[in-house]
């Protein structure tokens, strides 16, 4: 059998967007840029198309997908909103916030992994928005990585991970945020729950809703029973190289480790630095650090280190540090 060609990376010209919209309408899967990470999109209302996402990623069908809408007006077509959801949507959409709400019948059960709820967001990336508008239907899209590996933040990352399993990737440049969206469970609007920290912080959510938001991180262990804890494995977003996290890393500590072990700091450490020392942002800006985290982990994963040590972000893990630390903890989980 002839080998399938590797996916083509397409610029967002009007012609290419038309082509991709037609492919999506016909039930194909396409790699798409979002402001958080790249997604692997399919027509959310077409179960056959959505099944291809699970096959391409090697993702268990017990892990539900996020449905992307062009605008807040489309929400009522897929989910049952409530006042808390509308408040958050009006404040943060288009943007990196996903809401879990009771689903409508039109959403196929493959999308929600059999749950009576659906995760929805309106993305901010201008090219993805134009594509959503052209397709005229909601698009289901998980991150465009093989299941368990680090999420992609460039079109090239998508191609290197999914290679021949998809035909097209829309190139929207490097993702501006770099970590997956914040997920809030609003099935019960009186008891909002933070399922995944992201660029929209828990503090921002609390301020907008005017109530406390419990943090219910997705469970560890095996694939969760969907009814109990929809979502996923604790081990996620992992490089192949073993990752060790440190609440307090230092150059002195790094100097005592083997030279074939890499050290990843949030900001640039002072002093003379050996070759195995890396940092995410010179001055420690956490938004910039978040944007670069996945690309840096991928890059370190190719350098032949026996281990990667990573420093957790400070500030007790509040604000943007919470999202960075969540991803580092997952990447380090056995
Ligand atoms: O930023 C993002 O959210 C990216 C871009 C592509 O939009 N997407 C993304 O998708 O991160 P994915 O599949 O990698 O993560 C989606 C998460 C999963 O952990 C899944 O369990 C959760 O959303 N999820 C989806 N539907 C859910 C539901 N009905 N209830 C609870 N969690 C749900
Ligand atoms: Mg993912």
Can you give a write-up of this model?
The protein has 334 residues and is α/β, with parallel strands linked by helices. The protein folds into two domains: 8-215, DHBP synthase (Alpha-Beta Complex), CATH 3.90.870; 243-332, no CATH class. 30% of the residues lie in helices and 18% in strands. It is built from eleven helices and 15 strands. The protein has helices at 14-25, 47-57, 75-78, 83-92, 109-112, 126-135, 155-162, 202-209, 251-255, 286-301, 320-332, and strands at residues 8-11, 30-32, 39-43, 66-68, 97-102, 117-121, 139-140, 168-171, 182-185, 193-196, 214-215, 243-246, 261-265, 277-279, 307-311. An eleven-stranded mixed β-sheet has the order 1-8-2-3-7-4-6-5-9-10-11, with helices on both faces. A four-stranded parallel β-sheet has the order 12-15-13-14, covered by helices on one side. Residues 220-232 have low confidence and may be disordered. Threonylcarbamoyladenylate (TXA) binds next to strand 5 and strand 6. Residues 142-143, 151 line the site of magnesium ion.
């Amino acid at each position: 059998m002839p080998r399938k060609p590797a996916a083509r990376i397409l610029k967002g010209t009007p012609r290419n967007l038309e082509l991709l919209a037609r492919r999506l309408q016909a039930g194909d899967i396409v790699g798409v840029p979002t402001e958080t990470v790249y997604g692997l999109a399919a027509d959310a209302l077409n179960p056959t198309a959505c099944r291809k996402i699970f096959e391409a990623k090697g993702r268990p069908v017990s892990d539900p997908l996020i449905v992307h809408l062009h605008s807040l007006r489309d929400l009522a077509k897929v989910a049952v909103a409530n006042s808390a959801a509308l408040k958050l949507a009006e404040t943060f959409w288009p943007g990196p916030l996903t809401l879990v709400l009771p689903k409508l019948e039109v959403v196929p059960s493959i999308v929600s992994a059999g749950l009576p709820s659906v995760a929805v967001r309106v993305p901010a990336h201008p090219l993805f928005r134009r594509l959503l508008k052209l397709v005229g239907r909601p698009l289901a899209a998980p991150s465009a990585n093989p299941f368990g590996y680090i999420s992609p933040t460039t079109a090239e990352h998508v191609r290197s991970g999914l290679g021949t399993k998809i035909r097209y990737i829309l190139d929207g440049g490097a993702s501006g945020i770099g970590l997956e969206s914040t997920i809030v469970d609003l099935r019960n609007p009186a008891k909002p729950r933070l399922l995944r920290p992201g660029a929209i912080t828990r503090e921002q959510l609390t301020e907008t809703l005017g109530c406390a938001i419990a943090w219910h991180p997705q469970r560890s262990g095996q694939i969760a029973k969907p009814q109990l804890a929809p979502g996923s494995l604790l081990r996620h977003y992992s490089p192949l190289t073993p990752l060790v996290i440190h609440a307090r890393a230092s150059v002195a500590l790094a100097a005592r480790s083997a030279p074939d072990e890499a050290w990843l700091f949030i900001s640039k450490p002072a002093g003379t630095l050996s070759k195995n020392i890396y940092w995410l942002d010179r001055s420690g800006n956490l938004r910039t650090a978040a944007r670069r985290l996945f690309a840096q982990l991928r890059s370190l994963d190719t350098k032949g280190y026996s281990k990667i040590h990573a420093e957790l972000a400070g500030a007790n893990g509040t604000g943007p540090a919470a999202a960075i630390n969540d991803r580092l903890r997952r990447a380090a989980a056995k």
